[in-house]
Design a protein that fits this description.
1007 residues; alpha/beta; seven-stranded antiparallel beta sheet; 28 helices; 36 strands
């Protein structure tokens, strides 16, 4: 009977499983086709979708063409759905250096705009055109009002194609998209073959789907990065603010003979809150209405003629739907409306994946508040990575991470799928701080009446739990952490039996491996303590069958199964030859003798492996713990066992923790129950001591900061070495103002400060790669683009708020890892009123200095006040020269080695007493014309101190020139992208924020 089961399983694996999810797949000259059932879609639901939509269309999932209706080869006009394609070409023009940034003036290419309407239109940027806020042909100035305006789109198209690319639109389309993506059918940017209708895009639904796949794959097509991922993020992450007013409709002069690409002005009032670079995002408007109430919040759409012609992209479902000539035309009636045909179509798309019609309120796949990880609480979905950042591998007897040998030092985190997301973030912060790089998570954990599972007892996915697991993998991937995803056929004494049949266990493996395929930072433990003769028992033959299922689904995935107790010679042979695991995971006995035997046991395992001819890593993923039996190990016991594992050449070791078995309720339950308290708040004194001691064992270099900033001979140095050696910027500190990377507004409950910080941290390596070596933060943030924000790390008495500091700490530590400095500002105008009086301000300075020094940050320099001479300060001690000198002296007296300064307004000047009191001179160039920069710098050189501009709002060519002038005259320069990085909703896209400036920074800082 067992043999029959294995034969059936093998046939299943060779057929259905071979066609499963392959994230990153691309078509060639023809689409690869699969039945919808083989990629997790319901044909019945897709039939309903096509019946509703009509016309012709197609569905793509996991890179396969899985469903189609109507004539796929017919090429015809896509109407306004062409607009995001035009913006894609705009971003390609920036990437190619034809434009410096999307904020460059269109008048630089169409000079007639400079005098139009007495100069009103001279300020139109490419961003304005791509967001329908140009004011072209209307009385409003650029950026002030929204108008869906096809006259402006004709200006956009004509200027971009003829004057930027210097050719016709069809040729631009051919060279940038059609040929690289291997369009199958005819295409043209003149669908009607009329000069006055140029700009109307004609292509087939299956070729439009290729454009969708390019965006879904983060701008990559096979082995080419056609558009950098940062540009894709910018395109779908820069919505018009919800409070953007609609135009008054009063018309103004346009260029002579101005044509339209189709309609007129004010075609639809829908847009603010959900329109970004001509894409329609599934965001909410000012009234809180979501564009498509039954669709995932990460979905975005190119829509023409109210929905008759459309391209839908659903990243969290890895799904693309394209159609044309549909009778659907109610896109404009969709916000908040479940009955619009557009929303009904979206509902069928989701139902085709989930197997139920569902809606945004009942479908666990659609979780706007929990799934989103972008500024403003909307946008990028955790669990939809462009590409894995962290790749686990094996080389000999060691694990590798991104190709480099790595010892996996982990911690048990069993009940993660039941933990609050803020608990997870805080725990991950702590475990990284203590040198852990790996966590152990169960995929079917149930204990203490907590349901923390991604699959049920029959192996079927639990939608909410699976989404939590995907978000956890994505967050760990971003942080460079490895995840052990474990199954058990029974939770032992802590819960009911699970996965009690091979079929149920197989379904569980299939469910999890398919869902987690985009990530490479995890491995699968098929069965926890599989040898225990209770409900947990899993035979070697079953392990082999399950391992084959996982390998068919994802050949790159590392697979193991864990053993309760030490492994005998015969068991080891079966693990290697029968189950064919990639590494072995014995759980050492839980008694006082265990630490003293770990080294010898490990070496014995390697000797036995040599006899079999196959040597693999030994990974201790669950040693002894406190609260389990009569022996309560001390901190030193954990450390001895860890050292012994390393001495025996083990590949990894886990700090195991769990409930107090003797306690009536098991409290503290530690990783077994994370619903009410996070893990690091449940550790006892011995465990906390062990965590501290182990950090020095696995990461001795982490006990001290990795980046130490100093000044010597008037030059900035990092870890004793002068910055940018051999370059024009040698000894300088090029920086970017990112004060609102740690922003909060206590009056905006819908804003997710942690997710906002996550997005910035994720881009730090990209900024650093362009030559940035410092970021300005502020404990009271900066002007977010609206008045009335309450944003402060200080309480009224000058004490510090731990929640705010946690975000700041995360950024400082991320900068430390990336070799960057933080210019940490204390006080900001409009926020100092939070502090009660001058004594509270003084206490605030003292508390900040104490926090910085006690935290051991070596990469922090201090800025007392941002623009201290600004009229927005209330307290005299913060806005006067005398006050600044006093506060600088206070900080220096408490920490003589801490570098301290304070900045002035944008005039590029600083009073003599402040300059003399400071360790370095901080200036701003916002209001300083380019030609005056050399003189401003020269006037400060007599102090013999480094001169740092850490705020200049010039962008594009002018910003690049300001950087060159500053460096040429011996001063560091700092960029402030006010609209992008500092104004709500905040956007951090890396070097594509302003390509012209970041290219220049790279040039200035390279030898």
């Amino acid at each position: 009977m067992k043999q029959v089961c294995l034969q059936v399983l093998a046939l299943y694996a060779a057929g259905v499983l071979a066609a499963s999810c392959e994230a990153g797949l691309f078509p060639g000259a023809r689409w690869d086709q699969r039945p919808p059932e083989q990629v997790g879609l319901s044909r019945e639901k897709l039939d309903a979708l096509s019946k509703l939509v009509g016309g012709r269309g197609c569905v793509v999932r996991h890179g396969y063409m899985v469903y189609a209706w109507g004539d796929q080869s017919k090429s015809s006009d896509v109407a306004s759905a062409f607009k995001p394609v035009l913006s894609t070409l705009l971003l390609m023009a920036v990437q190619e250096g034809r434009l410096n940034s999307v904020d460059e003036l269109v008048a630089d290419f169409e000079p007639r705009l400079k005098s139009l309407n007495n100069g009103k239109d001279a300020g139109i940027t490419w961003r304005h055109l791509a967001s329908q806020t140009s004011g072209y042909g209307l009385v409003e100035p650029p950026g002030m009002a929204y108008s869906y305006n096809d006259f402006a789109l004709a200006l956009y198209y004509d200027t971009l194609t003829h004057k930027v690319f210097k050719t016709n639109g069809t040729e631009v389309l051919r060279s940038r998209l059609a040929e690289p993506l291997q369009f199958e059918d005819d295409f043209s940017f003149n669908a009607f073959r009329r000069p006055d209708r140029d700009g109307r895009l004609a292509l087939s639904v299956r070729d439009f789907a290729r454009i969708g796949l390019l965006h879904l794959r983060g701008g990559r097509w096979r082995d080419q990065q056609l558009l950098q991922p940062g540009f894709i993020r910018m395109a779908i992450g820069s919505p018009i603010p919800t409070d953007t007013p609609l135009t008054s409709g009063r018309e103004a002069e346009m260029l002579p003979g101005q044509r339209t690409v189709g309609g007129t002005r004010n075609i639809t009032p829908v847009g603010p809150g959900c329109y970004s670079f001509n894409w329609w995002l599934n965001r909410t408007n000012k009234a809180g209405q979501r564009l498509y109430v039954d669709a995932p919040p990460d979905m975005y759409v190119a829509s023409g003629h109210g929905g008759k012609r459309a391209l839908w992209i659903l990243p969290s479902l890895d799904l693309i739907v394209s159609w044309n000539d549909s009778p659907i035309d109610d896109h404009d009636q969709s916000p908040g409306n479940p009955d619009s045909k557009c929303n009904q179509a979206a509902r069928w798309m989701v139902a085709a994946v989930t197997g139920g019609e569902g809606n945004a309120q009942t479908n666990p796949l659609i979780r706007p508040s929990a799934a989103l990880s972008s500024s403003g609480g909307e946008g990028r979905v955790r669990g939809s990575p462009e590409a894995p950042k962290c790749v686990l591998g094996i080389e000999g007897t060691k694990f590798t991470v991104n190709g480099k040998p790595a010892f996996l030092h982990g911690i048990s985190y069993y009940g993660a799928l039941g933990a609050r997301e803020d608990f997870i973030r805080q725990d991950l912060d702590d475990l990284q701080r203590f040198g852990f790089n790996w966590i152990r998570v169960w995929a079917n954990w149930r204990a203490f009446e907590a349901d923390a599972a991604a699959v049920d007892g029959d192996g079927r996915p639990i939608a909410e739990g699976m989404e939590r697991l995907k978000r956890l993998l994505a967050e760990c991937d971003r942080r460079g952490l490895i995840v052990d995803v474990t199954f058990s056929r029974g939770n032992g004494v802590t819960g009911p039996p699970r996965l009690q049949t091979l079929e149920a266990h197989r379904r569980a493996v299939e469910s999890v491996v398919t869902a987690l395929q985009p990530w490479r930072n995890w491995y699968l433990d098929l069965s926890n303590e599989r040898n225990i003769r209770d409900t947990r028992h899993t035979s070697f033959e079953d392990l082999r069958a399950l391992r084959d299922v996982a390998r068919q689904l994802d050949p790159r995935l590392l697979v193991t199964a864990s053993q309760g107790g030490d492994i005998s010679r015969d068991e080891l042979r079966k693990y290697l030859e029968v189950a064919q695991v990639d590494f072995v995971t014995p759980h050492r006995p839980r008694d006082p003798r265990s630490p003293d035997r770990t080294e010898a046991i490990t070496k014995q395992l390697f000797e036995w492996m040599k006899e079999t001819g196959r040597v693999v890593p030994v990974h201790y993923q669950e040693p002894f713990r406190r609260g389990y039996g009569n022996w309560n190990p001390r901190a030193e016991d954990f450390v001895r066992d860890l050292r012994a594992a390393m001495a025996g050449a083990a590949a990894g070791w886990c700090f195991h923790n769990g409930d107090q078995r003797a306690a009536p309720d098991g409290q503290p339950r530690r990783s077994f129950d994370l619903r009410e308290r996070r893990l690091f708040d449940q550790l006892d004194d011995e465990e906390r001591k062990a965590v501290e001691l182990m950090r020095a064992v696995v990461s001795p270099d982490r006990t001290a900061p990795g980046t130490k900033v100093t000044i010597k001979d008037g030059k900035w140095r990092l870890n004793g070495e002068v910055t940018y050696p051999g370059s024009r910027a040698e000894g300088l500190l090029m920086n970017v103002r990112m004060v609102n990377a740690v922003f909060e507004d206590t009056q905006r409950s819908e804003f997710d400060p942690e997710a906002n910080t996550d997005e910035f941290i994720a881009q730090i390596p990209d900024y650093v790669a362009s030559g940035v070596r410092a970021f300005t933060l502020n404990l009271q943030g900066g002007m977010p683009g609206y008045e009335g924000a309450v944003n402060s790390a200080f309480n009224p008495d000058g004490s510090l708020r731990e929640g705010y500091l946690r975000r700041v700490r995360r950024v400082i530590e991320a900068c430390d890892r990336n070799g960057a400095v933080v210019i940490l500002g204390c006080f900001y105008q409009r926020q100092d009123q939070i502090l009660r009086d001058a004594d509270a301000v003084r206490a605030g300075v003292s508390n900040v200095v104490k926090w910085v020094t006690e935290s051991g940050f070596g990469n922090v320099v201090l800025e007392i006040s941002n623009e201290f001479d600004h009229g927005g300060f209330d307290h005299s001690v913060l806005k006067t020269v005398e006050g600044q000198v006093e506060l600088i002296g206070l900080a220096k007296g408490l920490a003589p080695d801490l570098l301290v300064s304070s900045s002035g307004l944008g005039h590029g000047r600083i009073p003599e007493p402040v300059a003399q009191a400071s360790d370095f001179i901080l200036i701003h160039f916002n209001g300083t014309p380019l030609e005056q920069i050399p003189g401003r710098i020269a006037a400060l050189k007599h102090h013999g101190k480094p001169i740092v501009c850490n705020e200049d709002d010039k962008t594009g060519v002018r910003g690049a020139e300001a950087a060159r002038l500053s460096v040429a005259n011996g001063a560091s320069w700092g960029l402030m992208l006010q609209r992008l990085n500092q104004h709500f909703p905040f956007t951090f896209n890396g070097a594509v924020d302003d390509p012209a400036i970041y290219r220049t920074l790279s040039e200035l800082t390279s030898p």
